[in-house]
Write a structure and sequence with these properties.
By secondary structure, the chain is of the alpha/beta class. The chain has one domain (2-192): Maf protein (Alpha-Beta Complex). The protein is built from nine helices and seven strands; from the N terminus they run H-E-H-E-H-H-E-E-H-E-E-H-H-E-H-H. Strands 1, 2, 3, 4, 5, 6 and 7 form a seven-stranded mixed beta sheet that branches. Helix 5 crosses helix 6.
């Protein structure tokens, strides 16, 4: 088990990423990266952008907390939704969240999560993707959700598992943890195979 053999530092305070690691029984330390990822993602290939932002987060935490990160696997992650050629990040306010959600109901969208892992000065990156289809949701349901502020801090303005529990019809072709911002299965495999 990774949690027993290795020290993990998550370069994020994302509640969803923390929840994924806790669910898996991973012992880890969470440190917020001093990297601004709140705005709309930069233009360009979302896979490259997500990897670059993930690496920036891992590097920022590794540099600012060198003693705490010594010998640890520092994990940076960044998630971007991509719909009809446009990258979608986190909504800045309710109006933008509303606009994003209605946009997402128009066909499938791709969720890209970039991962960067730094260990003893060595950095490795990869991207995992999933396809999500959000079936139409009523205006009343959207407004109730927006009032809850559950959209805050989430790429695409939603948490797929939380919305599925709430009764929204969302299908995922891929790993829902990728949509949640941390494809732990692939991260674990990367750490376990680090010296291979």
């Amino acid at each position: 088990m990774v949690s027993r053999a290795f020290r993990i530092v998550l370069a994020s305070r994302s509640p969803r990423r923390i929840e994924i690691l806790q669910r898996e029984g991973v012992q880890f330390q969470s440190i917020e990266a001093d990297v601004d990822d709140e705005a709309t993602p930069p233009a360009g290939d979302p896979r490259s952008v997500a990897k670059e932002l993930a690496l920036s987060k891992a590097r920022a935490v590794s540099a600012a907390h060198a003693l705490q990160c010594q010998g640890a696997f520092v994990i940076g992650a960044d998630t971007i939704c991509h719909h009809r050629g446009v990258s979608v990040g986190k909504a800045r306010d309710r109006d933008e969240a509303r606009q994003i959600l209605f946009q997402m109901m128009d066909g499938a969208h791709t969720v890209v999560t970039g991962i960067a892992i730094i260990h003893d000065g060595d950095a490795r990156t990869f991207v995992d993707e999933a396809i999500v289809r959000l079936q139409p949701v009523s205006d009343a349901q959207i407004e109730l959700y927006l009032q809850s502020d559950g959209w805050q801090g989430k790429a695409g303005a939603y948490d797929i598992e939380e919305r599925q529990r709430a009764g929204w019809s969302m299908q995922c072709d891929g790993d829902t943890d990728t949509v949640g911002g941390l494809p732990w299965r692939r991260v674990r495999e990367a750490i376990e195979g680090w010296s291979a």
